[in-house]
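Task: sequence design from structure.
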């Protein structure tokens, strides 16, 4: 399970900018996300329906 709480604290309507660090996460949608930030951004957009399938590339 990935803790995305630090990204929820951002003001509503403001974009979340992610660093270019590559530490891949595999989402339940079969997509590989570059890092925790990009994964959490997708989780928030999905309203919590997306979850981490595994650490690393899908």
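Answer:
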């Amino acid at each position: 399970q990935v803790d995305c709480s630090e990204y929820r604290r951002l003001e509503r309507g403001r974009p979340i900018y992610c660093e270019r660090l590559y530490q891949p996460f595999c989402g339940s949608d079969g997509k590989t996300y570059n890092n925790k930030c990009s994964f959490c951004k997708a989780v928030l957009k999905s309203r919590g329906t997306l979850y981490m399938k595994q650490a690393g590339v899908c």
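The mean pLDDT is 89.
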